[in-house]
Design goal:
Elements lengths: L6 E6 L8 E7 L2 E7 L14 H5 L14 E4 L2 E4 L2 H19 L4 E4 L6 H15 L4 E2 L2 H4 L1 H10 L17 E5 L3 H4 L1 H12 L3 E5 L12 E3 L6 H14 L5 H7 E2 L1 H8 L4 H8 L3 H13 L3 E5 L1 H4 L4 H14 L9 E4 L6 H6 L6 E2 L3 E2 L3 H11 L12 H7 L6 E5 L3 H4 L3 H10 L2 E6 L11 E4 L8 E4 L4 E5 L12 H11 L9 H11 L16 E2 L23 E2 L18 E6 L15 H4 L6 E5 H7 L6 E6 L2 E10 L6 E5 L12 E4 L6 E2 L3 E7 L1
Parallel strand pairs: 6-7, 6-16, 8-9, 8-12, 9-10, 11-22, 12-13, 16-17, 17-18, 23-27, 24-26
Antiparallel strand pairs: 1-2, 2-3, 4-5, 4-18, 14-15, 19-20, 20-21, 23-30, 24-27, 25-26, 25-30, 28-29
Helix pairs in contact: 2-20, 3-20, 3-21, 5-14, 8-11, 8-12, 8-14, 11-12
Bound molecules: iron/sulfur cluster (SF4).
Iron/sulfur cluster binds next to helix 1 and helix 7.
């Protein structure tokens, strides 16, 4: 019958960084269902995809998908032919480059694009435009992870693998809510807990995993360094540090020991609000385990002290010898399906693919030869936040692929004003996003189901993306569009396929040296993978750290930039929820998911609600020093008194209109997690 009449394509999930394999069932150029894939050795061997992976595919066939290029004339968009749109982009970029130099242009690449596309985007910006100002949303999520872990270990990625979760004796989850944001990892942790793994959960909110934890800690937002220094203090004080590991494999221990001396559990209790006995209990549990693993996410990274927070996490693991072995490690969970790959392939303003520094003359020489260009610059480029600050000044033109900064970046009004100030903006996306509306030219892109390539998941696994259907209308894959613009600007890019691009990547990127499309098979490969014989790497830093010895970096506690005062008397945290993803471009256009959570909200503690005389469902106005937003109230016990939580997915109540763009000086990541606000009933 008709219901069996469909085709099947196995590919990689477009949502979070777990990288589940999904089976797309298609008929008449449409995805009609998503099925499970049972494959040994993949991140979800039991086919247990979450609600987003299973039901979040309506956006693919959504009627609002962009199908033709758009050119803005007299303030409104008109459909155009590809030929005209591409020529206009190439001409305008060339004009700006000729008049002001390549530094006047910047590009935003995307964690939603394939590895091959990210590689081409940064190659285009560097080899054709002549600037290192190419960046992407990792700047807003894990820039501080990369900065911190490179200093401590020499490599900024998740050290261990998802399959190792079950083998840990203790799992310490800090600033991460896996059951909502990395659901398959969340389920694995719950399963491990049932089998005897002990959980320590530290989060200002009460999250689902807190209820399963041996020790559940609710520290004040932004006090992570104090908390972690407190744990380290107890471990040293009670003689629980791994002296052999410290002597053989680390450096700078004495300095660490002297800095944490001040952080007694009692003092840390004052700063964090966590009882001293709990701090001691958590420290002992973690230090006495044979195999203890740390997992973290944005709760650690999105602070002006993000890099310090990451360094503290690394200090704790080094102190107890919990790195370089199976089921241990320091494991940042990457939010977007290919944010790891976008970083790996050099969509960052300071590094070429494979984290090779743009400031190193030998590296520059290597790329200049490989790419046959004289345009390469040794000057570190601007990052996401800096690009918007310079819009209309140093930056005249911007090329954005698949990102929606109007919703995702801090201080929305400032982002909108910046986009207005540009001489030329081109946006390539699958929908006319809030950001695309500001563009001079909009180019319609293919989504993950409509193209070939690879994504790299949070555990460094490069997996295939397989085409299931044709793109709608005249939409095209980003790698094709970038190549066309480049060729029109006089730099030939004539790739036949993403596999050909991947072979070029392997030539210039040592950690991807053995990654070729024909080797990926059913399970992909985990980097570092040096050559065609290399089977890839399950966990990092075995025997030796990427930087030689692991290095302790003692850090002291610095409070968040904004604290409560008389006027702004609440601390707002932002984050995600299970049913939605990022700026909502995909999930809010997928009815089966959106219907569960169609409306924006804030979470507030019962006690505060009583004080403010607000009830469940009331409309309130939330105001920070940068703007105001109206939303609906949800009352509960998940947040502590004095704190509220707002998801940032909703364009109609954009949490990021309120957030603070103050930056971590090392990583340039803004402090999205701590904003002082006031709340009024409307
Ligand atoms: Fe997709 Fe992540 Fe859900 Fe897996 S856990 S199905 S990768 S969103």
């Amino acid at each position: 019958g008709r219901e069996y009449d469909f085709e099947k394509t196995v590919t990689t999930c477009p949502y979070c960084g777990v990288g589940c394999q999904l089976e797309l069932k298609t008929r008449d150029r449409k995805v009609i269902e998503v099925g499970s894939v049972y494959r040994e050795g993949t991140p979800n061997p039991y086919g247990e995809a979450c609600v987003k992976g299973r039901f979040g595919y309506d956006f693919i066939n959504h009627p609002d998908r962009l199908k033709k290029p758009l050119i803005k004339r007299n303030g409104s968009f008109e459909e155009a032919e590809w030929e005209e749109a591409l020529s206009m982009v190439a001409e305008r970029l060339t004009e700006i480059k000729d008049e002001y130099g390549g530094r006047a242009l910047a590009g935003l690449s995307s964690a939603k694009c394939t590895n091959e596309e990210n590689y081409l985007m940064q190659k285009f910006m560097r080899a054709v435009i002549g600037t290192n100002s190419v960046d992407h949303c990792a700047r807003l999520c894990h820039a501080s992870t990369v900065a911190g872990l490179v200093k401590a270990f020499g490599s900024g990625a998740m050290t261990n693998s998802i399959a190792e979760i079950e083998g840990s004796d203790v799992i310490f989850v800090i600033g991460s809510n896996p059951t909502e944001n990395h659901p398959v990892i969340g389920s694995k942790m719950k399963k491990a807990q049932k089998q005897g793994t002990k959980l320590i959960v530290a989060d200002p909110r009460q999250i689902e995993l807190s209820s399963l934890a041996e020790v559940a800690i609710q520290h004040r937002p932004g006090t992570d360094v104090a908390l972690l220094n407190g744990l380290i203090h107890v471990i040293i004080d009670e003689g629980l540090a791994d002296q052999k590991f410290i002597e053989e494999r680390t450096e700078n221990y004495e300095y660490l020991a002297s800095v944490v001396e001040d952080y007694t559990p009692e003092k840390v209790e004052e700063i964090t609000g966590v009882e001293a006995v709990k701090i001691k209990k958590a420290a002992r549990l973690y230090a006495e385990a044979d195999k203890a693993a740390i997992y973290f996410a944005m709760g650690i990274t999105q602070h002006r002290t993000g890099t310090d927070n990451v360094l503290s996490v690394a200090n704790l693991a080094l102190l107890t010898g919990n790195v370089g072995r199976e089921s241990t490690g320091v494991n940042p969970l990457r939010g977007q399906n290919n944010v790891q790959g976008a970083c790996d392939l050099g969509a960052l303003s300071n590094v070429y693919p494979g984290y090779q520094s743009v400031e190193d003359p030998e590296i520059k020489e290597k790329f200049a030869r490989a790419w046959e260009t004289e345009e390469l610059s040794e000057e570190v480029g601007l990052t996401v936040v800096e690009i918007f600050k310079q819009a209309g000044k140093e930056i005249k033109g911007l090329y954005i692929i698949g990102e929606n900064p109007v919703i995702s970046d801090p201080d929305q009004r400032h982002i909108e004003e910046s986009l207005d100030k540009l001489d030329f903006l081109v946006v390539e996306d699958i929908f006319l996003t809030e950001t695309a509306k500001f563009a001079d030219v909009v180019l319609p892109a293919a989504c993950f189901a409509e193209k070939e390539g690879t994504f790299t998941n949070t555990e460094r696994r490069i997996q295939k993306v397989n085409q299931a259907i044709e793109p709608p209308g005249e939409a095209r894959a980003d790698w094709k569009i970038i190549s066309e613009i480049s060729t029109r600007m006089g730099y030939q890019m004539n790739y036949d396929s993403p596999a050909e691009i991947m072979a070029e990547i392997a030539e210039v990127t040592p950690i991807y040296g053995g990654i070729y499309a024909d080797r990926l098979g059913d399970k992909g490969l985990q980097w570092p993978c040096k050559d065609r014989e290399d089977p890839g790497t399950k966990f990092l830093h075995q025997g030796e750290f990427a930087r030689g010895k692991g290095k302790f970096h003692p850090v002291t506690y610095i409070p968040p930039a904004e604290e409560v005062d008389e006027e702004y008397d609440f601390i707002m945290m932002t984050g995600r929820m299970l049913y939605h993803f990022h700026t909502g471009t995909m999930t809010r256009n997928s009815e089966p998911i959106d219907k569960h959570e169609p409306d924006a909200y804030l979470e507030i503690n019962e006690k505060d609600a009583k004080k403010l005389r607000i009830k469940e469902g009331d409309r309130v106005r939330v105001t920070s020093r940068r703007g105001e937003v109206e939303t609906n109230v949800r009352i509960g016990e998940r947040v502590q008194p004095g704190q509220i939580f707002m998801p940032f997915h909703y364009a109609e109540s954009p949490a990021n209109r309120l957030t603070n763009p103050v930056l971590d000086q090392d990583a340039k990541i803004p402090e999205l997690k701590v904003t002082a606000v006031k709340i009024e009933k409307v």
